[in-house]
Amino acid sequence: MPRLGKRTSIQLPFFTPLFMLSSLASAVGGVKNTATAAAGAVHGGVSKAVDSLSVEEIVAALKEALNAAAERAVACVSAVDGFMGNPSIRVPMPDDIARATSILGKIPGISGKVDEFLLAMNRAAEMAAAAAVPIFLIAIRDLTLQKAKELLVSKTPTAATQHFDASCRPSLYALFLPIVVQKMQDCGVVRVFDEIADAMGKVPIVGRRPTLDVGNHVTTKALDGLFLVIGQQETKIRTDKTSRVTPLMDKVFSCAEQ
Length: 258
Description:
Layout: H1 17-29, H2 35-42, H3 48-51, H4 55-77, H5 95-99, H6 101-104, H7 111-129, H8 132-141, H9 145-153, H10 159-187, H11 189-201, H12 214-239, H13 247-257
């Protein structure tokens, strides 16, 4: 298995996974509303159909929908070519290397490395994505009652996805980064990057070796892609009855459409 070279800026963060999982739950959930307070805050100001639902139904249905959206999205992007084969979420070539692609293509032994690097980054993202489901389920589990109602009746088809992206990304990033870095090592990302970077440093027109944090680049773009696909799945659940895989999900989202 390739090892990180001394010149590479990627480092595994020193933290305990269980501690980070606990932090994620705390950050997302916050202090829970009591059932009485939540019930009072949840009802009113929306359609009679939604007001006819209990807070328990709303929360349960939204969690079912988010679980389904996250699981479907992860299954999609973690498949072979889940990232590489989807231009809308493909992990792109870092800017420094992309600008020098035409030059690198003329260097013997390096021209093929650029394509290899792009593929390896996306393979690492695909392999790491499979570990994302438990992380998302923690965030979904701690959804508060009032927030669930707000997300249900929102006119934004990706409201829940946007909420979790805004509130969970730092914790998700910290959990996801070491997974991505390990998969990058498995896929040879760091080795190929070092070869390309060394070649760039020797080309006069480029004049320098790029100092890229590859782990940050792949992790950030992988999370961007995951949230995009989760949002697409959430939109399907909100607008397409056939995507609502449980009777409760169909009941609650049908009420929200009225």
